[in-house]
Amino acid sequence: MVHKENEIQPVADTGRPTAWRCTVCGFVFHGEKPPKGCPVCHSPTPEFIRDGQRAPLTYEGEPFDVLLINGSTHRAGNTGHMADLAEEILREQGIAYRRYNLSEHTIDYCWCCYAVRAESCTYPCRNKNDDMPAFHRMLEASKAVIIVSPINWNSMSVRLKAFLDRTTCMENLYHLKKPGHTEGKIAGILVQGHEDGAIKTAMDIWLNFEQMGYILAPFGIGFRTHGSEFNSSTDREFFRNDDFIVRQAKGVTSNVITLMKEGLEERLKGRLVPVTE
User: Span 17-53: which CATH code?
Assistant: First the structure.
């Protein structure tokens, strides 16, 4: 089973212009096809999706193995390319997975209920008004997660940070001495960016999952940067013609799959001692 959201599907001819929304800045364009680049933020055409009434994300409960998250503001940019490479391995090995681009979803900031009192930070999350409750259920249902992140100011994007902040309610189950839903699951992390900050970004992401009981796959962090001596406009061509980023993305994904197949989540159930902040 494959679920992905990064493809523009054909539009039925209704005689009316189609509304296209830039997922980066929100600019809306009306026409038969999306524009050749966004006039507001200069993002390329693939960042546009059809606009309209957006239903909240739902998860119907169908089992799957790997949750693949593109944490970039640009769903079709260089981080998206790295996610595409991971997806190739998931398909080749017949792994049931779901891919989501966070820029296409609504994730509110964390209400920080824990700051009021620990018991107020509950699971399911009190905020049921956005797409995060569905992501919570998918984190619970999946056996592994692969996070693909850009480097923004030596760390992850604000979209990904909001996503990770909202997993606090799952981590807090252990503080409330309730059964957790994530210990023993497998994690892999892929990072790309123009220049410095890859390892810091990866570790910032990993610490969040470590606190939920995830196990980092062996050789489970992969990254690739271009270089500050180059103009960022050359990054796209560089990454799409670079063999090293292919080895990094496909290697980490293969390692996640290999460890996932060991069934550690079931074998470790009830045997781990939660130690979290």
Answer: 2.20.28.10
Measured from the Cβ of residue 173, the count of other Cβ atoms closer than 10 Å reads 21
Between the CA of residue 105 and those of 114, 115, 207, 275, what are the distances in Å?
A: 24, 26, 24, 32
For residue 61, what are the contacts with CB-CB under 8 A and spacing of at least 6? 137, 141
Which of 83, 59, 81 lies closest to 70 in space, CA to CA? Answer: 83
Q: What is residue 216's three-state secondary structure?
A: strand
* 260 CB burial (10 A radius; 0-12, 13-18, 19+): buried
CA–CA separation, 149 and 126 (whole Å): 27
Residues of the chain within CATH 2.20.28.10 domain(s) are 17-53
Contact 34, 83 (CB under 8 A): no
- The top-level CATH class assigned to 66-267 is alpha beta
- How many other CB atoms are there within 10 angstroms of residue 196's CB atom? 13
Q: What are phi and psi of 153, to 5 degrees?
A: 50, 50
Cβ(183)–Cβ(274) below 8 Å: yes
Q: Where in the chain is the domain with CATH 3.40.50.360?
A: 66-267
Q: Which residue has the tokens 């979803």?
A: 105
- Residues 97-124 have pLDDT tens digits of 999 999 999 999 999 999 999 999 999 9
CA angle 55, 127, 65 (to 5 degrees): 65
pTM attached to this predicted model: 0.90
List the beta strands (DSSP E) in the chain.
2-3, 18-22, 28-31, 48-50, 66-70, 97-101, 144-150, 186-193, 215-225
Please give the helix or strand (H or E) that residue 248 lies within, else none.
helix 243-260
Contact 110/168 with Cβ under 8 angstroms? yes
Asked if residue 56 has pLDDT above 60, the reply is yes
Give the amino acid at 51: D
Spatial CB neighbours of 266, under 8 Å, sequence gap ≥ 6: 184
